[in-house]
Design a protein that fits this description.
Helix content: 40-55%
Structural class: alpha/beta
Distance between the termini: 35 Å
Number of helices: 15
Largest sheet: 7 strands, parallel
Radius of gyration: 22 Å
């Protein structure tokens, strides 16, 4: 959308909110943005989206919902030119609030928003950033530009205060949500498509094949478990930088007939419904959407004790929780559920009911609406 086609700002309601995100590919934060914006009450809020990168697949549902999207097409996310371009757009749009999502958009957005004199800037923190201290330092150094830091879980909020050094008084928590009906009502996929024999029990991983997600921890647990259970298979849905190394490891361990790679899929709800146990071996997180989705599907979950899990899983009631980066503990927890399928089924049922009550998108979006209204009231005062 060219600059000239953006509508002029007015003093009338609804409240104009600009949202800035790093990209609009089909990731967890990106999907969450679509769910939030398409459910916001347009009588109260007028959303606009700015994407730092080029057009991703999630541009389409936003535009189909009548939400203007501007993709800046920046090839280098840290380039200063994108800050200048975004500040010009914000100066014309004149939103009351700028809400940013993900690290690069958080930094670019607050610089551009400050230059454009946006009254309220909200930073969205979606993960406990453990890849290095530089990002934490940059976040802390530019904190003065931000009115609120909106964290996705209590663990991320605690990390942002303790390790990130952000002021506790600026930190608030609103969790991710899930379309509970989409997962609960999905038809089970035919896993024979992945060369999993009929009647098998399937362990499922869904996520990016990246060191953060701990796929080699899961592989080590599978190496211990699979020889003891001839009817158990492991299915990995997703892609990423470790994909080729994982395939080589599986071949070396002679597990190619028991470990299956599905790549990226658009039918995750159906695949989850067909699984016996969902496994999250991550080393760190924020509040993992895939666990919410598995819970909504009614699948028993085994997850490492990372950020956000304590908000979702009550150990041995809505899931099993194990120490991160521990293949023996992960294998033992999976073994427990394989040995007691009735208990696994009950945990899946408990989790499904909990998610419907606490994490349905309608509940979460109402929290966002109340949050934005509160900010506008504070600005008025």
């Amino acid at each position: 959308m060219p600059l000239e086609s953006l509508p002029l700002s007015t003093d009338s309601q609804p409240t104009r909110i600009a949202f800035c995100i790093t990209d609009l590919d089909a990731g967890g934060a990106e999907r969450a943005l679509v769910q939030i914006l398409t459910r916001l009450d347009r009588a109260r809020f007028e959303p606009f989206v700015f994407c730092i990168s080029g057009e991703g697949e999630l541009v389409h549902p936003l535009r189909e919902a009548g939400i203007p999207v501007v993709c800046l097409g920046a090839k280098k996310r840290h380039g200063l030119s994108v800050v200048w371009r975004l500040s010009r757009l914000l100066s014309k749009l004149r939103p009351s609030i700028l809400q940013t999502f993900l690290f690069h958009a958080n930094i670019v957005g607050r610089l551009a928003g400050k230059a454009a004199r946006v009254p309220i800037i909200v930073s969205g923190i979606r993960v406990a950033e453990k890849r290095g201290s530089l990002r934490l330092w940059i976040d802390r150094a530019t904190d003065w530009m931000v009115a609120r830091h909106l964290c996705v879980s209590q663990d991320v909020a605690a990390f942002s205060a303790a390790r990130g050094g952000l002021p506790i008084g600026k930190i608030q928590v609103i969790p991710n949500g899930v379309d509970a009906g989409q997962f609960a009502e999905a038809q089970s996929a035919d896993l024979a498509h992945f060369e999993i024999p009929p009647g098998s029990r399937t362990l499922l991983f869904v996520g990016r094949l990246d060191p953060q997600k701990g796929p080699f921890v899961l592989m080590a647990a599978a190496r211990e478990l699979l020889p003891r259970h001839n009817d158990v298979h492991l299915l990995l849905v997703g892609d990423g930088p470790l994909a080729e190394n994982l395939r080589k490891w599986v071949a070396k361990e002679n597990l190619t007939d028991r470990v299956h790679f599905a790549g990226r899929r658009n039918d995750v709800p159906s695949v989850m419904r067909a699984a016996e146990i969902f496994v999250l071996p991550s080393l760190w997180e924020g509040l993992p959407n895939v666990v919410l989705e598995a819970m909504a599907a009614g699948v028993a979950v085994v997850a490492s004790r990372v950020e956000g899990i304590s908000d979702l899983l009550l150990d041995d009631q809505t899931g099993l929780v194990v120490p991160p980066n521990s293949a023996p503990d992960l294998a033992e927890a999976i073994e427990r559920l394989l040995a007691d399928p009735q208990h696994a089924h009950q945990m899946g049922h408990n989790a499904q009911q909990f998610v419907r009550k606490e994490f349905a998108w309608g509940v979460v979006v109402e929290k966002y609406s109340a949050f934005y209204s509160e900010l506008v009231d504070e600005m008025g005062r």
